[in-house]
């Protein structure tokens, strides 16, 4: 979990440093037209720029999420759970770093976003990691996989192949 979080955090901060040092705010650079471009913006809000006047709230939420995830490290024995939680932790810490240390002020900094897809939000590596981690958490939970790697007996029955036990449905 810690390794995954560190990799996500490092990649997020490295890409944001690259964007800030090589692009001007508002600049659009086609990468794979028309599917992907880099578009440098600073986002004071959450996803889709929601809550731009409440940046400090997002900072507090990210601090709390990060603390809760760090406290889970010892409970995680499953590699998939470690990956999922590491993705969320690394992403939360990446955007938290922006909130704490970027302009306009401590705790209210704007997050650097740059990945632009057509008709979608502009996001960054941290955002991608958080979403991927949450999707993996949902899948693991639905499949009944506990953080220690054990499986819920009910979920194991649900995962049985269609041929198994099909006679009782007739």
Automatic annotation (TrEMBL):
Name the Gene Ontology biological process terms. Answer: proteolysis
User: Is DNA-binding one of the keywords?
Assistant: no
Q: Give the matching Pfam families.
A: Peptidase_A8 (PF01252)
Record's function text: This protein specifically catalyzes the removal of signal peptides from prolipoproteins.
Family per similarity comment: Belongs to the peptidase A8 family.
Give the active-site positions.
113, 127
The enzyme's E.C. designation: 3.4.23.36
GO molecular function terms listed in the Swiss-Prot or TrEMBL record: aspartic-type endopeptidase activity
InterPro entries linked: Peptidase_A8 (IPR001872)
What would be the name of the gene that encodes this protein?
lspA
Q: Can you tell me where the transmembrane regions are?
A: 54-73, 80-101, 121-142
The pathway where this protein functions is: Protein modification; lipoprotein biosynthesis (signal peptide cleavage)
Q: What is this protein called?
A: Lipoprotein signal peptidase
List the membrane topology term(s).
Answer: Multi-pass membrane protein
Tell me a GO cellular component.
plasma membrane
* Catalytic activity, reaction form: Release of signal peptides from bacterial membrane prolipoproteins. Hydrolyzes -Xaa-Yaa-Zaa-|-(S,diacylglyceryl)Cys-, in which Xaa is hydrophobic (preferably Leu), and Yaa (Ala or Ser) and Zaa (Gly or Ala) have small, neutral side chains
Query: Where in the cell?
Result: Cell membrane
- Report the main location listed first in the record: membrane
Which region is the signal sequence?
none
- Looking at the record's lineage, which domain of life comes first? Bacteria
Q: Which residues form a coiled coil?
A: none
Q: Which PROSITE patterns match?
A: SPASE_II
What keyword terms does UniProt attach to this protein? Aspartyl protease, Cell membrane, Hydrolase, Membrane, Protease, Transmembrane, Transmembrane helix
């Amino acid at each position: 979990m810690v390794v995954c979080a560190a990799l996500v955090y490092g990649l997020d901060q490295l890409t944001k440093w690259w964007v800030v040092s090589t692009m001007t705010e508002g600049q659009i650079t086609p990468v794979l037209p028309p599917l992907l471009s880099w578009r440098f913006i600073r986002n004071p809000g959450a996803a889709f720029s929601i809550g731009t006047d409440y940046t400090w709230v997002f900072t507090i939420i990210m601090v709390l999420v990060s603390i809760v995830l760090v406290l889970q490290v010892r409970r995680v024995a499953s590699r998939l759970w470690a990956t999922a939680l590491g993705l969320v932790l690394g992403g939360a810490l990446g955007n938290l770093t922006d909130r704490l240390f970027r302009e306009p002020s401590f705790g209210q900094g704007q997050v650097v976003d740059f990945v632009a897809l057509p008709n979608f939000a502009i996001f960054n590596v941290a955002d991608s990691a958080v979403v991927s981690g949450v999707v993996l958490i949902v899948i693991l939970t639905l499949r009944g996989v506990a953080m220690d790697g054990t499986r819920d007996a009910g979920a194991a029955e649900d995962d049985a192949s269609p041929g198994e036990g099909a006679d009782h449905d007739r």
